[in-house]
Specification:
The protein has about 180 residues and is α+β, with helices and mostly antiparallel strands. The chain has one domain. It has a four-stranded antiparallel sheet with strand order 1-2-3-4, with helices on one face. Strands 5-6-7 form a three-stranded antiparallel sheet, with no helix packed on it. Helix 1 runs antiparallel to helix 3 and helix 1 runs parallel beside helix 6.
């Protein structure tokens, strides 16, 4: 059965950011900023010790973006706990969606814009969990062909970045342990 022939889910479907992508972005943040308070001059350490957790909350908020599909339309945004801060996102009723427009990226990938009757263009999320189910539901509800839509980057790129972040964090932990043992 093709994506367009499947029956849409009658209830609201919520698709969060794919866990691999979210974990990788959080790990990258931690790997890059955790050493900073230790490396900073003594006068800056209190500021950095306060900034690191605040930055982590911001990264968690940014990576909590989700897509909601229901009978009325599609909504891309953040959960209430952080929506007041980020205030970005969009929503469209199914009846106003007209087409998907592919656009090549400078890295050789392809993103898709959802076009509405008013000429607006809204970036179709491509980093969501259960991506195939999301595309199938979107296709059925919108009536658009999503057979050429793929993830913006293959999972192996995030797996490699996650591995590198894990190695960085492990190296930082070992370095900290050795530095403490030397004191």
């Amino acid at each position: 059965m093709s994506r367009a022939e499947a029956a849409p889910s009658p209830e609201k479907a919520i698709h969060a950011m794919a866990p691999l992508i979210r974990f990788t972005l959080l790990a990258l943040y931690l790997a890059l900023v955790l050493p900073l308070p230790l490396m900073a001059p003594e006068s800056l350490r209190p500021l950095l010790l306060a900034a690191v957790p605040l930055g982590l909350v911001l990264v968690v908020a940014i990576t909590s973006e989700r897509v909601e599909l229901d009978d009325s339309g599609i909504r891309v945004g953040h959960p209430p706990w952080c929506a007041w801060l980020l205030r970005r996102g969009w929503q469209l009723p199914w009846s106003t969606i007209q087409s998907l427009t592919p656009v090549g990226t400078s890295q050789g990938g392809r993103v898709y814009y959802v076009r509405d009757q008013g000429g607006g263009a809204f970036l179709l999320p491509q980093r969501v969990e259960r991506f195939e189910a999301f595309l199938e539901d979107f296709a059925v509800r919108s009536g658009l062909d999503t057979s050429t839509v793929a993830r913006i980057s293959p999972p192996w790129t995030y797996r490699l970045l996650a591995l590198l972040c894990g190695l960085m964090l492990a190296g930082e932990a070992i370095g900290l342990a050795l530095a403490r043992a030397g004191h």
